[in-house]
User: Which sequence fits this backbone?
């Protein structure tokens, strides 16, 4: 999400148009030419999902089971019943450029993220993941 936010900032620097920022983020999500492409989204969600179900006594079986059918509901599993607002809140922790409001996130050290960019990117992320879930 940090790289998505950086891409959006590069394309909409100093913008005060929340709709423009939000729509730019939506367009970039899943786009192969930008940092948060569909393969990136899939690998990130798969990593979290597998971490949550892994059987350390049979790692091979965990992967075989997941990639035989578990991946078909990867977004539903990843979201784990979270509401759009909960997804937004989690995303905001990554789009605002700060770790718990205490320290700058490493990728964001050279950038000042406006609250409008952070909020718009987080909402686009939440809405995009709800859309992906609805198509599973």
Assistant:
């Amino acid at each position: 999400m940090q790289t998505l936010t950086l891409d959006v900032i590069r394309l909409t620097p100093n913008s005060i148009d929340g709709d423009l920022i939000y729509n730019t983020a939506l367009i970039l999500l899943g786009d192969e030419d930008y940092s948060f492409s569909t393969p990136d989204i899939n690998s990130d969600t798969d990593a979290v999902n597998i971490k949550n179900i892994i059987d350390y006594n049979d790692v091979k079986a965990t992967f075989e089971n997941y990639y035989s059918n578990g991946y078909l509901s990867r977004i539903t599993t990843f979201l784990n019943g979270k509401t759009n607002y909960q997804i937004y809140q989690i995303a905001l922790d990554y789009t605002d450029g700060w770790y718990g409001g205490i320290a700058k996130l490493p990728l964001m050290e050279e950038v000042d993220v406006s609250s409008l960019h952070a909020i718009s990117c987080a909402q686009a992320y939440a809405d995009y993941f709800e859309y992906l879930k609805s198509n599973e």
Strands lie at 98-99, 103-104. The chain has one domain: 2-134. The chain has seven helices and two strands. The helical segments are 2-11, 18-28, 38-53, 59-68, 74-79, 84-95, 115-134.
